[in-house]
Amino acid sequence: MNDVERELRELFERKAASVGGVAPRPPETVRKRGRRRQLGTALVGGLTVVALVVGSVAVLRSVDAGHDRRTVVDDPWAGYAVFERTATVADFTITSPSDWYLVNQWPWARMVATSLREQRERDTKACGEEPTPDERQACRSALMGVPGDGFVTPILMLSDTDRGLESSPCFGPGFSIGPEDAVMTVALDSAYIAANFGAGDRARWPVPFDTPPAENSQSCGPGTYVYFAAGDIPYVTHFAFGDEVPEDERQTLIRAFEEMHVDDSQEVLMVEPKPDDSATYVIAGGENAAGPWTLELTPSPSDDPAANVVLRSHHAEGGAVGLGDTTVPDGMDIDQAGGDPVFGFVTKEATGVEIRLEEGAPSIPAQIVPLPPSLPFEFDLFFASHEADAPAIAVSLDPDGRPLDRVSSKRCEPLAGDRSEHTIIPSSGPSGSSAAFHLAIPTSSETGRYIRPLGEVQIWWNLDPRSWSTALPGGDEPTPQMEGRVVKLGSIGVEGLCEVDGTIVIPDVGSGTYPIVAILTDGDGASLILPADQQLMFSVTN
Amino acid sequence: MAEGMRVGVEERPAEASEPQVAEGGLDELYARHIGAGVRLAFLLTGDRAHAEDLAQEAFVRCVGRFRHLRRPDAFEAYFRRAIVNLHTSGLRRRRLEREWLAREGAASARRVSSQPDVGAREDLWRALDTLPARQRAALVLRYYEELSERETSEVLGCSVAAVKSLVARGGDALRERIRGENE
Known about the structure:
The complex is a heterodimer of chains A (542) and B (183).
Chain A: H1 3-18, H2 28-45, H3 57-63, E1 84-89, E2 92-97, E3 101-104, H4 106-123, H5 133-144, E4 153-159, E5 182-188, H6 190-196, E6 224-230, E7 233-241, H7 247-258, E8 261-262, E9 280-288, E10 291-299, E11 309-315, E12 320-324, E13 334-337, E14 342-347, E15 352-356, E16 364-365, E17 367-369, E18 379-384, E19 393-397, E20 407-411, E21 423-425, E22 428-429, E23 434-440, E24 456-461, E25 487-493, E26 497-505, E27 512-522, E28 525-528, E29 536-540
Parallel strand pairs in A: 22-29
Antiparallel strand pairs in A: 1-2, 2-8, 3-4, 3-9, 4-5, 5-7, 6-7, 9-10, 10-11, 11-12, 13-14, 14-18, 15-16, 15-19, 17-18, 20-26, 21-23, 23-26, 24-25, 24-27, 27-28, 27-29
Chain B: H1 23-45, H2 48-64, H3 75-104, H4 122-129, H5 133-143, H6 149-156, H7 160-182
Helix pairs in contact in B: 1-2, 1-3, 2-3, 4-7, 5-6, 5-7, 6-7
């Protein structure tokens, strides 16, 4: 147990004790709310299709007024390859060009909706502890909102300009449309559910764009509305086009809508917030053996001044792998995570990224994606899908397709489930060729306790691992293992980092198999990262 | 299946009026758990009044969903999780709440100082206030609630590795800040 840990235990005990006694009987407000929540749960549970979404458009719009964060810049995709992005957001699988901004607004809108619902519940007087049938009906109406109040809950937004994450035509009068803007919002039609307890006689998906507009047509302000249902859930799609939108962009949006796939298997729907209630940019999507995945980007929630963004791949089964607050490009040139997809951050100096798999497998080119203008940091994103169950190293490339000659590393946060193998790819080649290596920094003590990585890692060519200490300052000349010289290939600070990726250029040496030795040094001493008999080896084939 | 969209028979209570917790049971449940809940909330917030509000809100939510709990006997674990989640997600909601309160002319959220403290660790207590909510929560769950890393990850809804990272970064930040205050 270290000093802070011990002091925290004592402090917490003492502070908790200082709270003193707590009244053992619930205040009347707590009892009433508890009973009412139970009643509400039972009432809605008895329905086949239920949405607990209430609120007032007036309240909501005032809450979010002024949140139009449309960012007008020169084309951020100039110089980048645009690809077709197919991604699943909630129950919608939508295909659109990657230079359109697809925002998953469902977590955020759900949070806003439930906040308002809770306020409404607090205001509700109709739910007594033992309601009569009439009171129960009144209570249900109050809990489920005012039919026709126009409240909808955005699920996704697709736009040709970056509007930021928390901006919606359905959530505030501050939202404006520029003359060349095109914006589509797909939303849960909460008001319709509250009024009809389900999808009613809504047209079932798929429906064409020119479906005649129906009721509550002002939910999201001026624009074109298309109403439909999937399963027993009603949705509304709102289109807003500026006066000068090019026809091809207009058609892009309409095509994205009409070609959507909508999961129609949902029957019961409740809107509840989750701890992670941020909207996200959907950068990419795909499908593997585990089902659909999406790569989603948010601003970092960290208070650290150096915080920037968080990039996560989400899988259909609920798992997620994340990477955030990168030090690319200040300390690294590339930062990677994930398996399928492999993804991460890369310096803008790189003109390409390739994913190197094990020996003999062809490398996979990764897609480079610029950050949205609302997140103006000096690095790019990359991703690549690869289904091979094998270690993969992402390598940043220069304009000639050669690896950027720098060492990079990886933070410790995504340690769980990630690879920890030590690899060099390829493991043979001529002098002057390059190879990518991956090293896991030891993060456990002999007792299994987590140790935060400190110090630096030195990478040595042809150092005899049994005499590795000769490479330390104050030692004799470094002892070679093979005939020829010992070369220090580089070093990198590893404070807070758990993995190191890098590329090396093979020195001009004779043919043979040479060790590549990694030494971890910090203020207290030094150690080999790998046992002496398990070093990375490279065969020079001149 | 999308988050928040749940399908299944278990989501359908049989009768609208079916009680979830017997009348006396609610009081008993409250008496049994509210003290621990307020203490946990106090360590998360550093504010006695806010802690009581937080614990009561979490209690109301857990009671409301009592019959949906997979293991009703594990109420304490659900209650703890609700407190932590309400606290961490509440940080984002506060922006909305502030605007709403301002519009309604209501008083700002109550903020009263904790009881006077003694001893040399008041600097550590102050330093805790500067940590991000999830780092603080991880420290409280590990060193006050004595949860394992796995249990802490379940409460926080993250991986074990993330818990290790939160605890390590939180500890480092505290060390750094205390060192800074002492210099």
